[in-house]
Amino acid sequence: MRVSVIQMCSGSQVEKNIEQARGLVDAAVTADRPDIVALPEVWSSLGGSRADKLAASEVLPPAGSNEPGGLAYEFLRSVAREKRIHVHGGSIVERDGERLFNTTLVFDPAGTEIGRYRKIHLFDIVTPDGQGYRESATFGSGAEIVTCKVGGTEVGLAICYDVRFPELFLALRRQGAELIFLPAAFTLQTGKDHWETLIRARAIETQCWFAAPAMWGRHVDGSGETRFTYGHSLVCDPWGMVTAKVSDGTGWATARIDPAVTARVRRDMPVLEHRKLV
Question: Fewer Cβ within 10 Å of end Cβ, the chain: N or C?
C-alpha cells in the first residue's frame, strides 16, 4: 500500500481550503499513484471564531449511506470516486445538534464512508510561548476507539493531541491496527520539540506504521491573534524510523506501507505478548 500525506496551510474559508486540497491531492496522485491520501486536521476550516467554525461545520449523513453531505464531505467523497483511491479526510468540523466535534472521515474508492472518529483528547493548554488554547470551548469530546479496513490493512484513527496518550494507541493495536493515521495541526512551539518524538515513540510502542499529515504555517484565531502550526507531515515505520517527510511549506510525501516489516518487527520483539500491565 502506498500512502500520501498532504500538508496544507488553511484558513477559515472552506471554499479556498477545498481548492488548495484539490490541487495538492491531484499533484500527489499524478506523481506518486498512492492507494490512499490523507489530509490534515481541520483542513477545511482552521482559525477564526466559534461562529466561523459553526458556519463551516457540517451535519454528517448516516455512515455508509448515499445521502448528500456538506461541501467538505462531498469533496472527500468525490475525490475517492474520481481517483479510485481511499481517502482519509484528516478531520473536519462536524455539527451534531448544538455541539461541534473534530471528526475524521475515511472513504473507500466507491466513495462510501467506511470510518468515522471524533477526537477524544482536547487541547486545553498554555504553550511555552504563553499562547493559550482551549479546544473544549469549541468542541465536544469523542468517546469511541475506531478502526476500519483499508484494502487488506486494519487502520486506526486518532487526531493530533491524542498522540500524548499512549493508552489510546495500545487500544488501537489491540483492535488489530497495523497503520495509524494521525492528522494534526500541531503548534509551532510544541511541534518543534515533541511532534516527531511522540510519533516515533507511539510507533515503537505499538509496532504500527504511522501516517501523520499536518497543518503548516500561519493562521488567525477568533481573537485576531496570529498562530503558527509546525507541519513536518511524515510517515513512520513500526521500528520508529521516518520513511517520508514534508519540510516547510505546503506539499506531500509518499511512502510504501510494507506488511512484511510489520510482521518482522512484531515477531522479533513481541512486546504485546510480554505486556504485564493493562
Answer: C
